[in-house]
Amino acid sequence: MGLCAGAALLLPGAVLGRTVSGYSGKVLHFHHTHTGERLWLVYDASGRFDGHALDRVNYFLRDFRTGEVHDIDPALLDILCSINDTFGGASTIEVISGYRSAKTNAALRAKSTGVARRSLHMKGKAIDIRLRGVRTASLRDCALKMRCGGVGYYPASNFVHVDTGRVRHW
Fold it and tell me: What's the structural domain count of the chain?
């Protein structure tokens, strides 16, 4: 993660904190494409993660198929914030998939070869996203340059997978 923090320093407006509409800290705007829910929050102010905000993220990124909630890795939020800041910081992150239960992952795996048996989605360490107003190829390139974890590019489905695992891409 130290490398990711260093890489974040190289990004314009990176996760060092900013002021948006009077709020200072790390700000994220989400829209979940399957539930229609939206979430806007400051999840880290003054260098400390906000426990209430993290609880809200955990619920928002729950397995929408089963309703199961799981802790989301705060480092994943930092990656998302850095990516968003690279593109001006005002975009909405469109969520295709956040946390997945083992049951959901197995069902998806039975239908597709593109679902990993030990997916980091099941550990709250992965998310599939689009960034409103940004081409997914540009989003992928940004995530690859950060070298903070795994990056999967799915142009036919119009999303990018980002995770906090080892650095790799597909």
Answer: 1
Cβ contacts of 104 within 8 Å, gap of 6 or more: 63, 65, 66
Q: What is the pLDDT of residues 72-94, one digit of tens each?
A: 999 999 999 999 999 998 899 99
DSSP 8-state assignment for residue 158: T
pTM of the model: 0.85
* Spatial CB neighbours of 90, under 8 Å, sequence gap ≥ 6: 20, 29
Return the CATH number at 106: 3.30.1380.10
Cα(142)–Cα(65) distance, rounded to whole angstroms? 30
Buried b (16+ CB within 10 A) or exposed e, 49-76: ebeebbebbbebbbbbeeeebbebbbbb
Alpha-carbon gap, residue 147 to 138, rounded angstroms: 15
> For the CA atoms of the chain, what is the radius of gyration?
15
How far, in Å, CA of 156 to CA of 31, rounded? 20
**Residue 15 belongs to domain spanning:** 2-169
Pair of tokens at residue 152: 């999967």
Look up tokens 């494409």; give the residue. Answer: 33
